[in-house]
Amino acid sequence: MRVREKGDRGVVQSVVLFLGVSVLSGALAAGLAIPFAGLAGFTTQKTSETLQDLPQQFDEVPLKQKSQIFAADGTLIATLAEQNRVPVKLSQVAPIMQKAIVAIEDDRFYEHGALDMKGTLRALLQNQSSGSVQQGGSSITQQYVKISLVEKAKTPEEVAAATADTYQRKVAELRYAVAVEKQYSKNEILEKYLNLANFGDGAWGIQQAAQHYFSVNASQLTLAQAAMLAGLVKNPTGYDPTNNAKRAKDRRDVVIRRMLELKVISLSQANSALKTPVIDPAKVRPNKLGCANGPYPFYCEYVVSELENNPAFGKSKTERSNYLKTAGLTIRTSLDPKIQAAAQRSIDTHSKPTDQAVAAVTIVEPGTGIVKAMAQSRQYGNKRGQTAYNYNVGKSYAGGYGGYQIGSTMKAFTIAAAIEKGFPLNYKIKAPDTIDLRDTKFQTCNGTTRDPSYQPSNSTKNVPEPTMIQAAQKSTNTYFLLLSQQTGLCPIAKLAAKLGLYNAQSGEPLQQVASMTLGIDYVTPVQLSAAYAAFAARGMYCTPWLITSVKDSAGKSMPTRGADCKQAMAPEVADGVNAVLHQVMEPGGTGQHLKFGNSDLAGKTGTIQKAKAVWYAGYSSKLAAAAVVADASPPYAPLIGQTLNGEKMRDASGSGTAGPIWETAMQGALKGYPTTRFTAPSSTVSRGNVKDLPFVNGMNPDDASNKLKQAGFQVTVASGTVNSEEAAGTVAYTDPRQRDGAPDGSLVTIYISNGNKQGQPQNSTKPPGGNGNGNGRGRGHG
After folding, report:
1. CA distances from 454 to 240, 436, 440 (A)
2. pLDDT tens readout for residues 571-619
3. Per residue in 175-203, pLDDT tens?
4. Sign of dihedral through CA atoms 527, 528, 529, 530?
5. Hey, is 317 helix, strand or coil?
6. Sheet bearing 67-70, strands edge to edge
7. pTM of the model
8. What is the rounded distance in angstroms from the CA atom of residue 725 to the CA atom of residue 742?
9. 363 to each of 213, 339, 526, how far by Cα in Å?
10. At 387, is the secondary structure helix, strand, or coil?
């Protein structure tokens, strides 16, 4: 067939200019020539200048590698990636794969330098006839350079420049290719190319492609498989076998026939490969990327948020996010799939995704802060019964919901603060069903507060003058309001802060108001479970801990936060809290029906006003958990009438609604754990003692006498002054119980100092004496 005359003149002109540019540009180094100066207006001078401006060395682009997040037992939680890639050495790629890619992309790869003159001239003539770049004729080295330049591009403009159909871009690629050929051996170049190339359907690099399409490693590829993958690089989307198996097979067969033509394979091998199906759909592994496609999406997003806040991974959140998706990290977490399954099974047993109300539970390990499980009723997604909110965490985390009002589970922190102040567990307060607190002042860290309209009531039947244990068993509001007033709100707030509690919606400290002990602030299950875990760990609070290790692509450990634990309260104080909350789960307590197994358990119910949310938080010495059931969205309607587990609720309570979720979750989670017991509180914490009753310090004898009577002591008041400079009077009391180091029924005298000075308590058979020590704590003698 005769080519048009115009085409003839163009071809001749192109060849002449090609030879001229090759000589004038001085680009014959290493036996190479530059062929693309035939474009009109692209002069030899321009070519020479372009070549001179280009660097003499090619900077290798770092491979974007996928990062993986694993559970504690090695289960894959999620893959984070911009490009799903696992780099391998060329020795880990099947020889037949190496032969297939060379045969179809650059059959003279091992014979020529950076440029294949035959292929380039053939492409030049065909492109000149059409008037544009239609056929590349690029060597594997040139292709590697092109892909690398695209990878390096950071802006849309840089990407456009790296892929432009211009001869200038081809000249630049060739100059870089020359540099690459000088820097690396042919096998090194082929290895880099195979690891960098796009093989379609989200698979980057030969190893990921082999695993994705065939569920094998690159070293195990067969002829038919290798030919299919080799054919993909020309058009990864067009020849994708998961979208168009026929086109993929046609392209694969072209590769097989080319390999036969080059005598890389035998006729029998070719015929056998041609008869092989292009893929087995059952062996295609989905390239599921991101937390949303993993088995634990909410927990995963919590982990990613933690990582994105780690300055070791970048200066900004954007840099860190990019690093996580490209650095090939191995991230191991605290999640225990067995405990997670128990938590989710409990949620699924007591609720449904389509309920109006939502349920959530978090399980934490005392003494480490390890978050073992995190489950909720609504699944991840945007369909009915799904959500993107994580109901277990605060708003400072990706998808964090912001929690719910803590309710009466807050009373545990009032108990702890009172024990710290010296109030014994048998401390009694008259607790009527309704009390008038309109004129009552509560001491805060910055002064005092009061509520001019506050007249709270109890929600349960109570003992008229309960001890701390009895009040906890019945969750007596009026008792704990009066106890918080006597303890002061500041000690409660400070202790709660030490235990990781703050408003999960605003990030602000808990509010010091009259109703503080009834739980008006918003907290999350992960916060509350970690706080209660501190009681189980005898006062050791540990910040919730999810990420146990991070290693880079070379296996080197990267800086991450480890266990972050501190002694937030004395062990004796925690022992006292455990003794009180243990009785909540014994006969007579609101949590008595939630008791199971042989280990000691402790817990506390929490019901918000109008039952907009209900809680149960509890623990053994091995695991702690907090479960909540609540209205799904602000402004939070009462739960009564909403659906839970497919049925409308007629009642809602911490013990009856959230409690069963806690119970079955913990019952499953604790399987396999040994039986454990709490440490019994000291007699001082249980019954009180002079040396541990500082709340009477500074009082007049009558007030101190009343306090001691409330604590269960027999009290008599002595008149006069022991030391006019130190004391206003003395209080003598008889403790009918066995005290530390004192005989049963012994008479002990305490004298009450003025102001901040502390008198020295003495045995009543001896005259009091000595000066005050000013430490705010009396010392008793038997």
Report:
1. 70, 7, 9
2. 999 999 999 999 999 999 999 999 999 999 999 999 998 899 999 999 9
3. 888 889 999 999 999 999 999 999 999 89
4. positive
5. helix
6. 76-80, 67-70, 330-333, 547-551
7. 0.76
8. 29
9. 39, 8, 8
10. strand
